[in-house]
Amino acid sequence: MGKMVWMQRYTVSALALLAAAGAAQAQTAAPAADPFPLLEEIVVTAERRSESLQDTPLSILTFSGDALEKANVRSVDDLQNFLPNVSIGGSAPVGNSAPNFSIRGVGQTSGRANNEKGVGLYVDDVYYPRSTGAILNLLDVERIEVLRGPQGTLFGRNTTGGAIRYITRKPSDELEGRITGTYGSHDRTDIEGILNVPISDKVAFRGQGAYFKRDGYVDVIGTDRTRGNQDDYAIRGALRLKPTDNVLIDLTAAYTENRSNGSPTVIAGVGLRQASGFPIAAVNAYNAYLASKGQTPIVADDPRFVTPDGYSVPDSCIMDEIALNAAKFGDAPNLVPNSRPQASLCDDARKTKNTFLSADIGIDINDALSLRSITGYNKGTDIDQGDYGLFGAQTNYTLNEMDSISQELQLLGSHEGLEWVAGLYYFHETPAERRFLREAVVNAGRVECCNGFDANVQLKTNSYSAFGQATLDLTDKARVTAGARYSYDDKDVFISKVGIFTPALPAGGSPRTNANHWDAIDYRLTLDYQWTDALMTYATYSKGFKSGGFNVDIVTLGTAAPTITSFDPETVKNLEAGVRSEWFDKRVRANLTGFHMKYDNLVVQLADFSRGALQVLFLNAGKLEIDGFEGEFAVAPIERLTLNANVGYTKIKYVDLPTGSPLFDPASCPGGALTFDRCWAQPLARSPEWTYTLGAQYSIPVGEGDVSLNANYAYKGSQYSNNSTSNSVKLPSYGVANVRVEYDSGAQWKVAAFGTNIFDKYYITTGTNGRQNTLATLTHSPGRPAEYGVSLTWSF
To answer: What is d(CA 303, CA 283) in angstroms, rounded to the nearest whole number?
Structure first.
């Protein structure tokens, strides 16, 4: 019997055992007194209505703002350690500065403008198509909900893996405020202030401002610079209006700004030639530079570039030192443009600005019917400059511009055991990517600047959808939920590219345009049964889709005219069953979910170096199945003590992959075509087989206040960084431990001391293997080392 079959049977048997035991307990258990507090009830709104987590037939993880603070979670990067079957990591090749999300192995690995996400990110139910910016710092969050599995019916496109929802605290009718200061390792200095003001009985305002600063933890050798630093600002204002008893209006505006000296990336290896046999231009150029300085040529894994400590990188950039060849520059299509976005070609820098606006209007038409309008707007820029391979002989400058607006209308009703929602949704986005590449070249034995190009990519998306979902009480214990959503996406793209590069475009090769459209029907059918007040089981069948798109590198194949190719949408069908249970007078909570997902038209990113230079392509690359389970457990064994354990398991099985798929490892099948029956294929990126977390919280009364002790440990199994063996890195498994001790005076102040990664575990969050391509290097992005700090909060 195969391991996965055994695992599926074990999961089903466990669900049945819990159901039977819960029914028996309901018949025999007698009411008992409450000598100490029970586990806290968790309320979620994932179904567009408020209900207990234990009554919601979805796989959800949720964290309150207070729980996030006690767990030392300040950003989404921190949050990932508490999310079984969820991975968050950097984008290839820019590293941690552009995080990507994956749930149950479904997500994305690229942060480029043309790539849609497989996990939807929502703030107060407004969809954010790009995951950059200080919005990822958790500012005044009431709770976070992580929905696992396709959420296409209620949340729409690009939620094939799931959805992450931020729900912020809303203005209230009480005058209150809070200021928190934090100081810690790497000169960490955080200041956050919150003020809530009731202006009248119908108007309230809540404002937040924050500054987050800390030095980087990857040293640039021979300089005072570090990589991986943080210098973020955020300001947010929310206005709540109650013009009448049946109308509620929430208006929000936010601005965020991030600055850093580049991703915390190090060189772990150096290559000399591409896999195809082509020389690596960067190596040739650097050797010419070294020869001019009387130094020896580069060798494989050269120690002048590869540092053994894992937290430093050489200051190796030569782009500001080499001579300019004026004959290469000009306005003609076969010359390098004179544009120079920044004065120095050696500055590694990232800067992101974002503006967010939203309006949420709710109208209670009567006791059984309400109308809700959600409007969102996001505009921002993201600038990144650096050498992706850190080798020092090229500079990439990318300017991404983000501009999107969304509008959703919901009509919600209830009547005699029937609850329903119907809605319309519109999303418009015009992202743009402007890329500037300059690379050193050898001319007559002398290194000079530059070959390269300027590329301009402009995309436009219009997405329309209509959806509905209803939940009907079949009996006083059984419910059925059914829903569907029709989506239509219309996209077009404009690309221009000029300069000196390989492979060169034929005459008339730029600019180019393309347009396409896709539609899809997503659906969900769920049956849940409430065996007792403390035990619920459910089964779900659902489908979601991730939108198609275009390749933003103009593709050249032989002598054929260059084209802009497109790729089709992905679809995921999910069969899921779960148990939600509480035991021993709600002192034990055990939630289990098992799933089987069919993943069609998988889109993977191919770093194609076969023509001597990099072309990044997205391809539809086959079918697969994903099986696994999730478990969340909490116990309150004695007064003031709570123990938590969460676990996730994911297993990937490929059903079919096309010949030549970038997932195939050529070393596994030498001497022939890369075919499904011959070759080994690497698992999907960001899909560790095992993940788990352990946690404990204990409080001790001290005077008028109390001391709380919090400790947690998180483990992630090994995983791959990208979905292409041409540049993917296998990231080793790791575990990190965090602690926090806090004294709350019970009055107006509290103080805390904390440590993260306290055992100083070295681990890698992402990586790119470019040893045999134009990057010339194997790079790793390490996670943060052990860090400690203190915080003081004053409230009124």
So the answer is: 15
At 599-640, the pLDDT tens digits run 999 988 776 665 555 677 788 888 999 999 999 999 999 999
**Could you give the CA distance from residue 497 to residue 504 in angstroms, rounded to a whole number?**
10
Which residue type is seen at 105?
G
pLDDT at 522: 96
Q: What is the DSSP letter of 612?
A: S
| Contacts by 416-423, CB closer than 8 A, 24 or more apart | 417/472, 417/473, 418/470, 418/471, 418/472, 418/473, 419/49, 419/470, 419/471, 420/468, 420/469, 420/470, 420/471, 421/48, 421/49, 421/154, 421/468, 421/469, 421/470, 422/467, 422/468, 423/466, 423/467, 423/468
Please give the model's pTM, rounded to 2 decimal places. 0.90
Query: Is the CB of residue 152 less than 8 Å from the CB of residue 467?
Result: no
Report the distance separating Cα 489 and Cα 547, nearest Å.
7
Query: In whole angstroms, what separates CA 107 from the centre of its chain?
Result: 8
Tokens representing 151 are: 């959420």
**CA gap 716, 774 in Å, rounded:** 31
In three state form, how does the secondary structure of 701-732 look? Answer: EECCEEEEEEEEEEEECCEECCCCCCCCCEEC
Cα 399 from Cα 380, distance rounded (Å): 10
Among candidate residues 208, 214, 218, 209, the one with its CA nearest the CA of residue 182 = 214
Q: Give residue 669's pLDDT.
A: 92
Q: CA-to-CA distance for 543 and 159, rounded, in angstroms?
A: 10
CA distance from start to end of the chain = 63
Q: How far is CA 678 from CA 63, 136, 206, 428, 621, in A?
A: 45, 43, 61, 44, 16
Phi-psi region of 288 (alpha: psi -120 to 50; beta: other; left: phi over 0): alpha
- Residue 254: strand, helix, or coil: strand
- The upper half-sphere exposure of residue 518, i.e. CA atoms within 13 Å in the direction of its Cβ, equals 18
Q: What is the DSSP letter of 137?
A: B
Chain centre to alpha carbon of residue 648: 18
Contact 740, 710 (CB under 8 A): yes
Amino acid letter, 278: F
Q: HSE of 782 in the Cβ direction (CA atoms, 13 Å)? A: 22
* Residues 16, 22: Cα–Cα separation, whole Å: 10
Using the structure block, give the residue that is written with the tokens 């681990």: 763
Q: Strand, helix or coil at 789? A: strand
Task: Let me know the angle formed at the C-alpha of 685 by 683 and 686, rounded to the nearest 5 degrees.
Answer: 115
Distance CA 143, CA 61 (A): 10
Q: What is the spatial distance between Cα 96 and Cα 99, in angstroms, rounded to a whole number?
A: 6
Amino acid, single-letter form, for residue 744: D
pLDDT for the residue 689:
95
Closest CA to 690 of 3, 59, 85: 85
- How high is the pLDDT of residue 88? 80
Which tokens sit at 541?
Answer: 């069948």
Residue ranges in the chain whose pLDDT is less than 70: 1-37, 89-98, 109-111, 131-138, 506-508, 555-561, 607-614
Phi/psi of residue 682, nearest 5 degrees? -70, 150
Q: Which residues pair with 287 in a beta bridge?
A: none
Identify the pLDDT of residue 15: 41
Q: What is the dihedral of CA 11, 15, 21, 26, to 10 degrees?
A: 160
Q: Which residues pair with 539 in a beta bridge?
A: 527, 577
Asked whether 605 and 616 are in contact (CB, 8 A), the reply is yes
Q: For the range 537-540, what are the long-range contacts, defined as Cβ-Cβ under 8 Å and sequence gap of 24 or more?
A: 537/15, 537/19, 537/577, 537/578, 537/579, 537/580, 538/57, 538/577, 538/578, 538/580, 539/575, 539/576, 539/577, 539/578, 540/57, 540/58, 540/149, 540/574, 540/575, 540/576, 540/577
Distance CA 117, CA 425 (A): 18
Per-residue pLDDT at 610? 59
